[in-house]
């Protein structure tokens, strides 16, 4: 069952509603580019830049008392849930204007960076086609267009699928049909994103979820796949969890007033949304709902999960009138994910005892009769699994690296015993990322994507009978890219408690000195059990091609080293995340990868919390920091259950209504620990419509930094007024944001040529 609820180490956009922006899902602030063969030191500032004064937010005293402790927040007024307060909007616009002025002297350089980044992209391209029934489905990008077209072609050959199949595109091929053109749909919107695109089992209809604000509140439209004609009225105010239950029924999820997915609904095509049947209402505000379909398409699974616990309901698509059935009831500390094949449910179960998970199977008619297929192991974490008619593929982690193992299964209807004799797929890079892709349940072909910091994203079809692997698609990188020029390494830093923390490193072997003089960017996240597996980013080449080193700190709070790695970086052990990152930075300096004067750091969302914490703890260690949509007002946010995500995340950060958690969280909360000291150059970003991290958190962080810091280094705040947590939606718009960020980094390092 692929991409089940809960935080995962696999590289998909997100699972559940997390403050989650991992490196693999968003443009990593790691591809800092400059347009000259050799860095040019010293920058000439224009008079406008040198005379610009930063905005000063007004101070309105706001006291908050807890356990006899009084916190004063002079910038609490910046929170406006309606996003319409004139004073708040005026302040945000003033910050944006100041940022524009400060960066105006490198605008030409920023434009040059943008041209270089965009120049590496093959703008007219298609994704690897996916077989669904009698069609190939794929996405097409067009020259100069921001968004994709969703397309399909009829499969003309009737034979079984093979790893050697290629979708015909010549004059004799079936005609390409554009089902939906996002470029047309996006017209008139500053933001446009499709969160789900689901084809009905008979291939006649498509349901897609559309967000036009960036607030992740979707509207679902159903259209005829051939002519685009709307089918029924749209479903409004829903999540992107949408699945077909047969050809005439849709299952979807809605949210409560704090954007917690709490109700799952059954919708019959042609009926009004107001008459839809609520299958389940999760009333516990610590739990949220998610929805998955089995690979067999015969069952839908509804998960109800907190950060520690997950139970499962299921619905038989052929017996929808029976409603949801309980697969395994809720037991605190037990996390369940499930799928279906033949007359068995397959279950991944994690508990406090079996913290790295075990894989089980049970008959459909006796769910209490469990067979252990793969037992719990101390050194191997079961991450996910994928079912086929004759095989099961298990995604695991061992020694911090992804591992993919294929096992044969007995014929459907036969007894299932413990899995044995599996074969593991080999990968060539020392550090890498591998993710499951959509595969046909009835075939013997496993599809997966592979990437490393020197290997562009590659889609493979793997024949599970013969072991034959065929490359189906590799991202085209224009500009003469040659992977053999680059080196990836894995190093280990030792924390003060003796814990070894891995670091993934990339550099170009003929350009670095490795004597402490090289500039370096260190990325970190470290929350939600998310693994930041090393992957490829084409724009990063402009960085490493000019002598930069790029590194990822795989710190506690993530899931790279198994469940305990996560447990040791959350709640009352959260500070391990921050000290691990500092340890990695010190290791890189001590081992001559860089110096303090050239060490840059970045992180987004919960990784932005990391940035804020380490900046307060060790501001002397870094030259530049970028904090994207940072979660920095930890105590205030987690004390307010009316804010989206708060109640569901008490198991991640702690509940500050309890004294022990209150004072621990206050001891690292970035807003609460700003003090009068020198800070490095800092860029902070936000999205006005962000439902995960309210824009007011980074706004307050910047306002208080301006008040307290004692240095003259740059402090810039850029708030996108028409976007959410994932920033702008167009593919080129995102590149423009990258270019801006890279220009800031290099301006701060003194590596930008003076404007002519």
From TrEMBL:
It comes from Elaeis guineensis var. tenera. This is Prolyl endopeptidase. One of its GO terms (cellular component) is cytosol. One of its GO terms (molecular function) is serine-type endopeptidase activity. Belongs to the peptidase S9A family. It is an enzyme of class 3 (hydrolase). Residues 54-473 form the Peptidase S9A N-terminal domain. One of its GO terms (biological process) is proteolysis. Serine peptidase whose precise substrate specificity remains unclear. Does not cleave peptides after a arginine or lysine residue. Regulates trans-Golgi network morphology and sorting by regulating the membrane binding of the AP-1 complex. May play a role in the regulation of synaptic vesicle exocytosis. Residues 535-750 form the Peptidase S9 prolyl oligopeptidase catalytic domain. Its EC number is 3.4.21.-. Keywords: Hydrolase, Protease, Serine protease. It catalyses: Hydrolysis of Pro-|-Xaa >> Ala-|-Xaa in oligopeptides.
């Amino acid at each position: 069952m692929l991409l089940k609820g809960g935080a995962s180490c696999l590289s998909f956009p997100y699972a559940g509603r997390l403050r989650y922006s991992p490196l693999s899902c968003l443009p990593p602030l790691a591809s800092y580019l400059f347009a000259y063969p050799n860095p040019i030191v010293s920058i000439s500032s224009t008079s406008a830049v040198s005379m610009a004064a930063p905005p000063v937010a007004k101070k309105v005293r706001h006291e908050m008392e807890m356990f006899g402790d009084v916190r004063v927040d002079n910038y609490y007024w910046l929170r406006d849930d309606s996003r319409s307060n004139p004073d708040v909007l005026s302040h945000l616009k003033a910050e944006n204007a100041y940022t524009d002025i400060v960066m105006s002297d490198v605008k030409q350089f920023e434009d040059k960076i943008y041209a270089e980044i965009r120049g590496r992209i093959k703008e007219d391209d298609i994704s690897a086609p996916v077989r669904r029934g009698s069609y190939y489905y794929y996405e097409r990008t067009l020259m100069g267009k921001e968004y994709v077209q969703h397309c399909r072609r009829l499969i003309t050959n009737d034979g079984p699928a093979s790893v050697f199949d290629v979708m015909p595109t010549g004059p004799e091929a079936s005609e390409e049909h554009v089902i939906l053109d996002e470029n047309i749909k996006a017209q008139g919107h500053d933001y446009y994103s499709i969160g789900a695109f689901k084809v009905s089992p008979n291939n006649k209809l498509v349901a897609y979820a559309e967000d036009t604000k960036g607030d992740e509140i979707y509207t679902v439209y159903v259209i005829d796949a051939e002519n685009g004609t709307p089918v029924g009225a749209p479903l409004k105010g829903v999540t992107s969890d949408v699945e077909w239950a047969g050809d005439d029924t849709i299952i979807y999820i809605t949210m409560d007033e704090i954007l917690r997915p709490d109700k799952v609904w059954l919708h019959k095509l042609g009926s009004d949304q107001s008459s839809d049947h609520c299958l389940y209402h999760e009333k516990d505000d610590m739990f949220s709902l998610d929805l998955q379909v089995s690979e067999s398409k015969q069952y839908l699974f509804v998960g109800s999960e907190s950060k520690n616990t997950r139970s499962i309901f299921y619905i038989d698509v052929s017996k929808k009138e029976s409603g949801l059935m309980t697969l395994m009831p809720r037991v605190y500390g037990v996390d369940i994910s499930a799928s279906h094949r033949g007359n068995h449910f397959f279950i991944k179960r994690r508990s406090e005892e079996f913290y790295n998970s075990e894989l089980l199977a049970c008959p459909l008619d006796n769910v209490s009769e469990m067979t252990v297929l793969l037992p719990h192991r101390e050194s191997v974490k079961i991450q996910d699994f994928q079912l086929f008619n004759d095989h099961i593929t298990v995604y695991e982690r061992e020694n911090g690296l992804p591992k993919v193992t294929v096992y044969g299964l007995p014929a459907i209807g036969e007894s299932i015993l413990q899995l044995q004799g599996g074969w593991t797929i080999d990968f060539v890079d020392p550090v890498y990322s591998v993710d499951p892709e959509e595969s046909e349940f009835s075939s013997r072909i496993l599809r997966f994507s592979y990437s490393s910091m020197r290997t562009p994203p590659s889609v493979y079809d793997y024949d599970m009978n013969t072991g034959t692997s065929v490359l189906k698609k590799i991202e085209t990188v224009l500009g003469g890219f040659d992977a053999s020029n680059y080196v990836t390494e894995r190093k280990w830093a030792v924390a003060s408690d003796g814990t070894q923390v891995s670091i993934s490193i990339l550099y170009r072997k003929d350009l670095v000195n490795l004597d402490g003089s090289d500039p370096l960017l260190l990325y970190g996240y470290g929350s939600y059990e998310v693994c930041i597996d090393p992957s490829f980013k084409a724009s990063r080449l402009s960085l490493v091609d000019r002598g930069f080193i790029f590194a990822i700190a795989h710190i506690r709070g993530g899931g790279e080293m198994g469940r305990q790695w996560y447990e040791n970086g959350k709640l009352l052990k959260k500070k391990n995340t921050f000290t691990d990152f500092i340890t990695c930075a010190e290791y890189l300096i001590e081992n001559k990868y860089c110096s303090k004067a050239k060490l840059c750091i970045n992180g987004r969302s919960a990784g932005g919390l990391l940035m804020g914490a380490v900046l307060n703890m060790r501001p002397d260690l870094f030259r530049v920091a970028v904090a994207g949509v940072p979660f920095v007002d930890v105590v205030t946010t987690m004390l307010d259950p009316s804010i989206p995500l708060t109640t569901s995340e008490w198991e991640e950060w702690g509940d500050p209504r309890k004294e022990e958690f209150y004072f621990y969280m206050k001891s690292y909360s970035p807003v609460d620990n700003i003090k009068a000291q020198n800070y490095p150059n800092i860029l902070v970003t936000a999205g006005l419509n962000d439902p995960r991290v309210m824009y007011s958190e980074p706004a307050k962080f910047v306002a208080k930094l301006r008040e307290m810091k004692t240095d003259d280094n740059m402090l810039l705040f850029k708030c996108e007024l028409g976007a959410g947590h994932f920033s702008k939606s167009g593919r080129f718009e995102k590149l423009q944001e990258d270019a801006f960020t890279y220009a800031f980094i290099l301006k701060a390092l003194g590596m930008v040529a003076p404007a002519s």
